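tl;dr need the bound structure. longer version: we got a ligand (alpha-L-sorbopyranose) that a collaborator sent over and nobodys looked at where it sits. i said id run it. heres the input, straight from their email, havent touched it
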Amino acid sequence: MIGYKFMGKAHSHAYRDVSFYFDPAVEPVLQVLCGRNEENVKEAAAKMGWKSYETDWRKLIEREDIDLIDVVTPNNSHAEIAIAAAEAGKHVFCEKPLAMTLEQSQRMQEAVEKNGVIHMINHNYRFVPAIQLAKKLIDSGRLGKIYHIRSTYLQDWIMDPQFPLVWRLSKEVCGSGSHGDLAAHSIDLARFLVGEFKEVNGILETFIKQRPIVEDSSGLSGKASSDQMGEVDVDDASVFMARFENGAIGTFEASRFAGGNRNGNRFEINGEKGSIRWDMENMNNLEIFFLDDEPGLQGFRTINCTEEIHPYAGAYWPAGHIIGYEHTFINLTLELLNGVDKGYSPSPNFIDGVRNQAVLAAVEKSSRSRQWVSISELLQ
Ligand code: SOE
């Protein structure tokens, strides 16, 4: 695994725990952790249970005792590392968004396909039992034809204008701001549940255009190191409308300026026979409304998806004993390991990553041109 901060911790925990709760077809071995700063990577490896460490990812990729490379670095190195890993015959698991641009993501897809390696991208929210129930209800027709998705992914961690210029606020490192970081998750859930996007029309906005420079910009917080200011060249918020191939329409809002929302990943989907609602901060529950319920008793009911009948839930605790954020990574890791064993790339994989990147790029283009942008035209 290359990188060891927030996502590195989540992935490491999942590798360590997956065999505790499930019986994956292959066992993960935490062989090598890689990071540029020797002292820090050594300490992280010891803490998170990795057997050894490297300070140069190219050396890591050359090693013969590695089957899979997990990329949890900032977005500007995903493509280079993933392509090199694929060319060295290693399976690749990559953080989202897949790349900085659509073109880069397409090269990543080409590389994994050409080299016949397994690939997957980390959209962990698909692996929440309540989201699996949402998928089952929609696929089995219980909601009928889908009319609407109303999706928001709201955070508030950079509202203070004195919050420093960390890496997530630099286009050179990230490609985009809340758009690629947050809207990418909403796009993935919409593709998973509603279907493929047809066209989009959106706005990206940066509210605070300059921020204090910070010496170590690698974290998600920190104190400004001087009075010197630097330019914020990514969006603080992204808002867009969408039409789907199947006729559904949607609205999407991703923001880091939605005060009071710490990780407000939420959506509502309305179909001809019913509606569903989900909120990450209450992630074990799915709210469901059926139009054919008895008149006078109609209303949203709350299903607590902790019973054994729900995917993944049975591996953890008795019904009603909820699971959390970290378990979404464990569930995803189970699928990744089974894919590696059986020789297929579980969804969401790099093909999903490219389609996601196309929607991100289309919204960016629309924000610049103030026009609707078709996804299939970008993918040509
Ligand atoms: C930070 O904004 C972040 O950790 C994202 O990078 C994750 O993908 C998201 O799930 C939670 O917020």
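gonna send this back to them w/ a short note. DSSP finds eleven helices and 16 strands in the chain.
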